[in-house]
Amino acid sequence: MPSRYLNFRCSVPWLILLLQTLFLIHSFLGFPGAADIYSPSNFYPEFQDVNHMVLFGFGFFLMVLRRYGFSSTGFNFLLIVLGVQCSVLVEDLWVLLRVQQNEVGMRSLAKAVMSMTAVVISTGAVLGKANPVQLIVMTLVESIIFYMSRCINRTFLQVPEHLTLMHVHLFGAYFGLAASSRFPGPPPGLDKNRSTPKSDLFSMLGTVFVWVFWPSFNSILAGSKREAVLNTYLALAVSAVAAFMLSALTSKDGKFRMTHIHSAVLAGGVTISYTAHSIQHPWIAMILGLLGSVITILGSHCLQRCFNPALKLQDTSGVHFTFGLPAVLGAVAAVVLCVVQRGIETQWNNLSSLGYLIFVDLGAFCQTISTALITGWITGLILNIKLLKAVHVSKYFDDQFYWEFPHLSVGF
């Protein structure tokens, strides 16, 4: 057996055991609110939707590489179940330090699962290049930093709780991109970072699951749940229709491209995440879904040909144009819609309050994206230290390096 396998045997199980022991001690000591954790709640149906979306949907969504299917789904599951416990631990520590009020039970668990979307998105940027130890460390670091970013937005900028969580797409995309920039690029001629019809089919299955459950994700913590569900569904529907239309228009032979459909059908859910609860006219949600699909497909052409090579970004799953750009568009749309709505209500007489609203929204956006880029870049440096046993570039995008799966040597 190669020595590299023994190295992972000596590191991954013990790291997982150490973390799980820490989480068990936290649960045993009973941090604030532990007595109320089993209090009755009507959150379970929506929580189950979000859980399906994050675990099953994103697990298959990441199956874009022809020889990395086991790792895509398996590591996704491991990172989420570890990250959820870490998020709950961090939140309880914040309650203990009296930084925030206590929220226990299903609501706290739902926020932790939603926070893991950032980790899943970031994993897509470094997919196939990071080993399990690096992914676990990245999950812990990102969970803590994203929670701190949310606290800054909530405490200093007075952003509502559910809106701080909607920055998860923005944070995850740019944290992952910054981290991926510190990984060596794959060698020329390496063809394992391609997809096959089978991997594209599984990935599309995950996309459909994410699409179906996205209205629950946007509405689970919102005050106006009916509006959030309706607006999210309309935006998703329009973005899906636009994805097929734009795919045929932008392809050389006029055929649909699975990569376009795979990414652009979700753009509407990301774009409307900030405003789904407040939009009062369905046509606005539909326009946002259309714009989200446009920026995703056109952005994929520009980024892959110009932007990524110039900045040496290796975005394995295309998280920049699937989640990053639609999140930026959604943040800009939130500022515009908020200003227009408040201006109409006050008949444009109270410009100082409008300026304050713009400052808060732009401040939250800039704080989130700058924190993601800076900490992601630093995390990328940490992940490539010798202690974490970075994978050689010749072993990128290969299940066989981690899993007992002999027929992969023949081809998948």
UniProtKB/TrEMBL annotation:
<dbReference type="GO" id="GO:0005886">
    <property type="term" value="C:plasma membrane"/>
</dbReference>
<feature type="domain" description="Ammonium transporter AmtB-like">
    <location>
        <begin position="42"/>
        <end position="387"/>
    </location>
</feature>
<feature type="transmembrane region" description="Helical">
    <location>
        <begin position="356"/>
        <end position="385"/>
    </location>
</feature>
<feature type="transmembrane region" description="Helical">
    <location>
        <begin position="109"/>
        <end position="127"/>
    </location>
</feature>
<feature type="transmembrane region" description="Helical">
    <location>
        <begin position="164"/>
        <end position="181"/>
    </location>
</feature>
<feature type="transmembrane region" description="Helical">
    <location>
        <begin position="201"/>
        <end position="221"/>
    </location>
</feature>
<dbReference type="InterPro" id="IPR029020">
    <property type="entry name" value="Ammonium/urea_transptr"/>
</dbReference>
<dbReference type="InterPro" id="IPR002229">
    <property type="entry name" value="RhesusRHD"/>
</dbReference>
<feature type="transmembrane region" description="Helical">
    <location>
        <begin position="323"/>
        <end position="344"/>
    </location>
</feature>
<dbReference type="GO" id="GO:0097272">
    <property type="term" value="P:ammonium homeostasis"/>
</dbReference>
<dbReference type="InterPro" id="IPR024041">
    <property type="entry name" value="NH4_transpt_AmtB-like_dom"/>
</dbReference>
<dbReference type="Pfam" id="PF00909">
    <property type="entry name" value="Ammonium_transp"/>
</dbReference>
<protein>
    <submittedName>
        <fullName>RHL protein</fullName>
    </submittedName>
</protein>
<feature type="transmembrane region" description="Helical">
    <location>
        <begin position="228"/>
        <end position="249"/>
    </location>
</feature>
<feature type="transmembrane region" description="Helical">
    <location>
        <begin position="12"/>
        <end position="38"/>
    </location>
</feature>
<keyword id="KW-0472">Membrane</keyword>
<feature type="transmembrane region" description="Helical">
    <location>
        <begin position="283"/>
        <end position="303"/>
    </location>
</feature>
<feature type="transmembrane region" description="Helical">
    <location>
        <begin position="75"/>
        <end position="97"/>
    </location>
</feature>
<keyword id="KW-0812">Transmembrane</keyword>
<keyword id="KW-1133">Transmembrane helix</keyword>
<feature type="transmembrane region" description="Helical">
    <location>
        <begin position="50"/>
        <end position="69"/>
    </location>
</feature>
<comment type="similarity">
    <text>Belongs to the ammonium transporter (TC 2.A.49) family. Rh subfamily.</text>
</comment>
<dbReference type="GO" id="GO:0008519">
    <property type="term" value="F:ammonium channel activity"/>
</dbReference>
